[in-house]
Amino acid sequence: MGRKLGRGVLAGLAIVVSLLFLLPLLWLFASAFRSSTETFASSSPLSWHALWPRDFTMDNMSSAIDAGFLTALRNSVVVAGITVVAGLLVSASAAFALAVIPFRGRTATFSIVVLSFLVPFEAIAIPLSRSFGEWGLTNTLLALVLPGLGNGLAVFILRQFFLGVPSSLAEAAHLDGAGWFRIFWSIYLPLTKPAMIGAGLILFLFQWQAYLWPILVTSRSELDVAPVAIAKAFGAFTTDYGRVFAETAILAIIPALVLLALQRYFVTSIATAGSKE
Amino acid sequence: MSTMSSTGPRARTRRHRNALAAVAFLAPTLALIIVLRIMPTATAAGDAMRSGLPGSLAPPEFVGLEVFGRLFQSESFWQSVRQTLVFNLLVNPLQILIALLLAVLLTRNLPASGLWRTLIFLPSAVPLAGSTIIWGIGLRPEGPVNGLLDLAGMTTQPCFTSPDQVIASMIILASWIGVGYWMVFLIAGLKDISPVYYEAACIDGAGPLRTFFSITLPMLRRPLLFVLVADTVANFVLFAPVHILTGGGPEKQSNFLMYDIYNRGYQLSDPYTSSAELLVLLALMIVIVIVQFRLLGSSDAGE
Fold first, then answer.
1. Domain end point (choices A40, A57, A74)
2. Is residue A82 domain-shared with residue A210, that is, in the same domain?
3. Prior bond to B28 cis, omega within 30?
4. What is the ipTM of this complex?
5. Which of B29, B157, B161, B236 to mutate to test binding with chain A, by most A CBs within 10 Å of its CB?
6. DSSP A222
7. B153, B181, B224, B288: least surrounded by Cβ within 10 Å?
8. How far apart are CA B183 and CA B186, in angstroms?
9. What is the CATH number of the domain that holds A267?
């Protein structure tokens, strides 16, 4: 009897906490589809309408589009897309060398890679942006993409997965005369799809939320990525938040959908990150 | 590794070829480490030991540790250090503790656990700038949080505009997206613990608290260390909320080192002091990470 009651309390707790985490999102989406007057009217005094618009309107969305938010969104998608593809290639090759190819100093190299990337990029972004300026890379796509390509967690996850592939596969291919590149490309990559998706998600999330670096290396507003465009809109409008809500909702829904669709890959790849060496 | 004998000319060419292949596969990553980590740190170290007038065309002159000396005498620098430490000593343990409690709760076979997990994890998809907008507006006097406090009969709280509440507000903003993310790592760690240990504890008649402290926590040390370190380094460089919402205020209470470094470098065009302060930030971060390794990573050698 006591046990059952205890479980009931725990289940209730789980529900309450999950709803607490969900409420800000619901409020954001409701606010994206109503006037900002209504947004504040519904919250003071607070009514359940805070979470559901009384009068649906697409005005905020169209004012976001009129303000050029789609350009910013496209920039974010392009930067994140290139980062995922190129970043996966870079991380997977490094992970392959660190997991499969026997060479002297492998453990030390692995430690260097993981420790270097443990230093968060933002910490050195400011001096780096000055160098990028000197190299004439300001306002280029390359400047926006480059920092996202090196990701320690992605290398780590892929290496863990590569270590799990039986080495007899590579040995058999070797005997057939296959070189390391063929073994990498046609055996290891196809076998580690879940890890590739998980690592790809990590690369994507890093770029999608980038804020400091884009403001450091871009000065032209047509190169603004979505978070920067939203911050500018937020700073510019002191009373009408409708457009800012609409843009934030779009910024949030894209990774949320991606994550919902690919959650299980993310979870399986993470499961290896926390586990032993 | 192959079982072939490791001596003789054939083995040597093979070793040689392997080393070449490894270099080729690692080259892009090593190049990125040099360009994106080592070089900027060296640039910062070089700049921190130089000084020049803002906007002056004369090359900056080498001044040794003078810039650090001036920085260490600045009252506002120490305030930044203090606020950064206060924020981090609160936000990191708090986020990891909540993430751990939720991870334990949601691995107890409750009905629809997967759904609750997803709902808590979902906000971590929201970029920091998005969370900044949501909480920046949500915590306003006329926003829904104060609406809720009002229903509960409490007075309106100023949150981000009050020097006493700005750090707490930042913690909420960062934790809403952080907790679910780290929870997923901890759930993975919990699932890695073999049920054998729990069965043994059950046979020994250990209660849930006893089981948690003598089995779950020790077995979870590795993922906990990873999550704590990764969370700390991320929160040490928290920037977007300060830049978008508070500009370091009110009364410089949210003027964390990362923002102060940006402000000195860009707003005040003083790359020298900015670089010196950056090196201090890196050093602080490394010290804290080492302390965490000492606290959680010790007696881990028996792996």
1. A57
2. yes
3. no
4. 0.91
5. B29
6. G
7. B153
8. 5
9. 1.10.3720.10
Chain A residues lying within 8 Å of B44, measured CB to CB: 124, 126-127
pTM attached to this predicted model: 0.91
Residue A273: predicted pLDDT:
63
How is chain A split among helix, strand and coil, in percent rounded to 5? Answer: 80, 0, 20
Note whether A216 and A109 are same-domain residues: yes
Query: Which residue of chain B has the CA closest to A272?
Result: B188
Q: Are residues A176 and A40 in the same domain?
A: no
Same domain, A74 and A112: yes
Q: What percent of chain A has pLDDT over 90?
A: 66
Q: Taking 80 as the threshold, does the pLDDT of residue B300 lie above it? A: no
List chain B domain ranges. Answer: 80-297
Domain end point (choices A57, A72, A95):
A57
Q: Are residues A18 and A75 in the same domain?
A: no
Cβ-Cβ contacts under 8 Å between A and B: the total is 281
Say yes or no for a CB contact (<8 Å) between A102 and B106.
Answer: no
Residues A180 and A162 in one domain: yes
Contact A103 B19 (CB under 8 A): yes
CB contact under 8 A, B28 and A93: yes
Tell me the residue range of the domain where A17 lies. Answer: 2-57
> How many other C-beta atoms are found inside a 10 Å radius of the C-beta of residue B158?
16
Dist CA A119 CA B40 (whole Å): 12
- C-alpha dihedral, B139 to B142 to B148 to B154, nearest 10°: 100
- In B, minimum Cα distance to A277 occurs at B303
Identify residue B151 by its one-letter amino acid code.
L
Total domains present in chain A: 2
Residue of chain B whose Cα is closest to the Cα of A114:
B33
Q: Which helix (H) or strand (E) holds B17?
A: helix B8-33
| A178-187 per-position pLDDT tens digit | 899 999 999 9
Q: Which of A218, A8, A21, A24 is nearest to A125 (CA)?
A: A218
User: Using a CB-CB distance cutoff of 8 angstroms, which residues of chain A are in contact with residue B159?
Assistant: none
Q: Do both A163 and A231 map to the same domain?
A: yes
pLDDT of B298 strictly over 70: no
Least Cα distance to A95 among A159, A171, A144 occurs for A159
Minimum-distance CB partner of A109 among B26, B37, B134: B26
Q: Are residues A31 and A121 in the same domain?
A: no
B12, B115, B126, B273: which to substitute to probe chain A, counting the most A Cβ within 10 Å?
B126
* Least-confidence region, from A185-189, B132-136, B269-273: B269-273
Residues of A in contact with B132 (CB under 8 A): 231
**What architecture is the B80-297 domain classified under in CATH?**
Orthogonal Bundle (1.10)
- Chain A touched by B128 (CB under 8 Å): yes
